[in-house]
């Protein structure tokens, strides 16, 4: 029996307890104003609830008093680009395909320089800590040295991450530095898996940039690689149905390039219909596809069937004019929807700010599609849904006993507008409404200065 003492954190606890779907997130909202989170020496949550009910043995433990503040599960970012750390707010790009050519491929090519990439890895991790993003699916650089720098720095600071080098086997002159032949692409991904997958806090994904940056032959080879490593828990990550500009946009270009009616089929080993050619499916419980703005019902059903999740990136969609993922239709299909910053098309590192855009864009959907998301649904999407998308719900995503202690401490005094809203803006007399108002104000109003502490597996994360 572990006799080593742990630590008790005191604050107002907010989380989505249990393992609900989005439909029942509201009933699973846990709010404990005078709360205690007891974390054992191994970094596990052993008590989560009112301080008054703290078990005898844990009353002797050291207490960290965050009262006046809040403890929330760490935020989960299911889609963020490491090689776009400095590429946010790029003016003059246009929509997706032009923006990639004009702004992004040149920005990503700079990571060829290992010293530059090391500096970017440090800044990338520092910004994640500032934003309280304890776990993330990180779209990686094309350059192995840059990926090594990212994994090394992530482990050094103690954040959770899944990442994989961005694979491109075709591209224009602007992308030339990022493109390799297929054999090199496979060899580099395989080496990355061998070196970094299955460690305490980091894992590896196979990451073709999107279907237009590879070929059917690449997908055959990626399918073979993925089949060989899937059982080791390796992830798959890419983009799907983001830009639907008629004729010249990503969706039409993809369908034309692969001769298919379904973009998703290109990731499902079902390309070049009518011919014998196809490959292993890349979909599954460890697959996350970003955007999914323009999916057919059949594509959503197939994602739900395979356990493939969506990284919903409303901030990015506003910036690139990609449209709005239909919330009700997507959720009704039974697909897990989590949030992604999509740095650098998105320019917010803070998942709660992405949740704020999520609230705004879905409130603005036309007619019956419009929805006013409950703060519990936003908290679910920002935390537990992300853990589920990463297939790690058993380990983190909420403050339930038995999970690893991955959490953020919010001190409203760090951001005066938030402190003032919480002090003067909560209007309801009944507890349930006041709780919802408090959580909503908290999620919408958090900015980086209010994120006082970040903990992963019971260890404080500092840059
Ligand atoms: N599709 C292919 N590459 C990218 C990228 O870097 N960002 C976004 N938002 N979409 C993509
Ligand atoms: Zn992206």
UniProtKB/TrEMBL annotation:
Q: Which UniProt keywords apply?
A: Hydrolase, Metal-binding, Zinc
Report whether ATP-binding shows up as a keyword of the record.
Answer: no
UniProt-recorded Gene Ontology molecular function terms:
guanine deaminase activity; zinc ion binding
Q: Write out the transmembrane intervals.
A: none
Q: Which GO terms describe its biological process?
A: guanine metabolic process
Could you tell me which SUPFAM superfamilies the record lists for this protein?
Answer: Composite domain of metallo-dependent hydrolases, Metallo-dependent hydrolases
Enzyme Commission number(s) of this protein: 3.5.4.3
Show where the Amidohydrolase-related domain sits. Answer: 70-436
Q: Does the keyword Zinc apply?
A: yes
Gene Ontology CC annotations of this record: cytosol
Q: Would you tell me the protein name for this molecule?
A: Guanine deaminase
Task: Tell me the classification of the organism that encodes this protein.
Answer: Bacteria, Bacillati, Actinomycetota, Actinomycetes, Mycobacteriales
């Amino acid at each position: 029996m572990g006799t080593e003492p742990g630590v008790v954190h005191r604050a107002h606890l907010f989380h989505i307890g249990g393992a609900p779907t989005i439909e029942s997130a509201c009933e699973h909202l846990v709010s404990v104003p005078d709360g205690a989170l007891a974390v054992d020496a191994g970094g596990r949550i052993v008590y989560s609830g009112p301080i008054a009910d703290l078990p005898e043995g844990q009353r002797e433990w050291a207490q960290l008093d965050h009262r006046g503040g809040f403890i929330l599960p760490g935020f989960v970012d299911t889609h963020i680009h490491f090689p776009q750390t400095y590429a946010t707010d790029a003016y003059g790009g246009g929509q997706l395909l032009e923006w990639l050519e004009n702004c992004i491929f040149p920005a990503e090519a700079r990571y060829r320089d290992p010293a530059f990439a090391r500096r970017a890895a440090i800044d990338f991790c520092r910004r994640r800590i500032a934003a309280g993003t304890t776990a993330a699916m990180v779209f990686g650089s094309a350059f192995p040295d840059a990926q090594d720098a990212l994994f090394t720095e992530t482990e050094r600071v103690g954040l959770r991450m899944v990442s994989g080098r961005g694979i491109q086997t075709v591209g224009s002159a602007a992308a030339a530095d990022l493109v390799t032949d297929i054999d090199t692409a496979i060899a580099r991904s395989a080496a990355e898996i061998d070196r970094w997958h299955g460690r305490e806090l980091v894992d590896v994904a196979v990451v073709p940039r999107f279907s237009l940056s590879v070929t059917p032959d690449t997908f055959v080879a990626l399918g073979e690689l993925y089949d060989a490593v899937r059982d080791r828990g390796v992830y798959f990550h890419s983009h799907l149905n983001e830009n639907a500009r008629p004729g010249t946009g990503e969706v039409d270009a993809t369908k034309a390039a692969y001769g298919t009616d379904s973009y998703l089929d290109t990731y499902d080993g079902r390309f070049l219909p009518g011919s014998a050619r196809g490959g292993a499916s890349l979909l599954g419980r460890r697959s996350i596809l970003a955007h999914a703005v323009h999916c057919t019902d059949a594509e959503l059903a197939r994602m739900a069937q395979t356990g493939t999740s969506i990284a919903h990136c409303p901030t990015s969609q506003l910036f690139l004019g990609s449209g709005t993922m239909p919330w009700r239709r997507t959720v009704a299909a039974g697909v897990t929807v989590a949030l992604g910053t999509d740095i650098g098309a998105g320019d917010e590192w803070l998942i709660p700010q992405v949740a704020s855009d999520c609230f705004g864009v879905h409130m603005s959907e036309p007619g019956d599609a419009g929805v006013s998301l409950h703060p519990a649904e936003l908290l679910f999407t920002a935390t537990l849904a992300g853990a589920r998308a990463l297939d790690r719900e058993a380990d983190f995503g909420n403050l339930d006993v038995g999970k690893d202690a991955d959490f953020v401490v919010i001190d409203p005094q760090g951001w005066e507008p938030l402190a003032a809203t919480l002090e003067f803006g909560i209007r309801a007399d009944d507890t349930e409404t006041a709780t919802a108002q408090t959580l909503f104000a908290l999620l919408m109003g958090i900015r980086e200065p209010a994120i006082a502490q970040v903990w992963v597996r019971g260890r404080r994360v500092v840059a």
